[in-house]
Amino acid sequence: MHIRAPAIVCSARPHGENAAIARLMTADHGLVAGYVAGGRGRRMRPVLIPGNRVEADIASRSASQLPFLKAELVTSRAPFLSEPLPAAAIVWITALTAAVLPERSPFPALYQALDAVLDAICHAPSARGWVPALIACEALFLRELGFGGARPDLAGADWARTMEVFDISGRHVEKRLLADRAGPVMGELVSARAILRDRLSRIA
C-alpha cells in the first residue's frame, strides 16, 4: 500500500520513546492509522496537532502491517487551540472522527464536512456561525454510519433553539455512535463534548 493524499489529523498518541501513532482522515481512503517516526519530536509535534491539514505519505508492505506515515503541514489550526471555545470544538469533532470511523473505509462526504466545519470553527466571527455546521456534521456522521436522520434545519433559529438542537444531537451521538465504546475512549469523548457544551452555555 502506498497512499499520498491530503489529510486531516484526527489524533496522535505517543508510541515508544519518540514516535507516535497518528490517525488521519482522507477523502478516498477514509481514516488511516500510521506509525510516525519522531512523531513526538520538535519537528513533527506541531504537524500532528488534531485539526491540522497535511499532505500525507502512507506506506506499508502488506495490508496487515501498520503503515509508516510521513506528513507535511499544509494548514495549521494550532493557533485556535489557544482559544477555549474553538479548542473544545476542534478537540471534540476530531476525537469523534478518530474513534467511530472504521479504518480504510472511504467517507468522502465526511472528509469534506470535517474540513469545512474546522474552517468554520477557526474563521467564523463567533460560535453562532459554526455551531449549526457542527450539528450538521454530527448528523452526517449518523447517516453515513447507518443510523439515518435528517439534517437539522436551523435557518433563522435563535441561540436557544440552536442549543436545544445541539443537545438533541449530542444524545443521538452518545446513544448510537458511542454505544459500543467502553472505558477511557468513551469517557474521553463524553467529557470532550461536555466541555464544549459548558463553554457554549456561557454565550448569552
From TrEMBL:
One Pfam assignment: RecO_N
Domain DNA replication/recombination mediator RecO N-terminal per the UniProt entry, residue ranges: 1-76
Record-level GO BP terms: DNA recombination; double-strand break repair
Keywords: DNA damage, DNA recombination, DNA repair
Domain of life: Bacteria
Gene Ontology CC: one annotated term: bacterial nucleoid
This protein's record includes keyword DNA damage: yes
PANTHER family attached to this UniProt entry: DNA REPAIR PROTEIN RECO (PTHR33991:SF1)
Protein known as: DNA recombination protein RecO
Organism lineage string: Bacteria, Pseudomonadati, Pseudomonadota, Alphaproteobacteria, Sphingomonadales
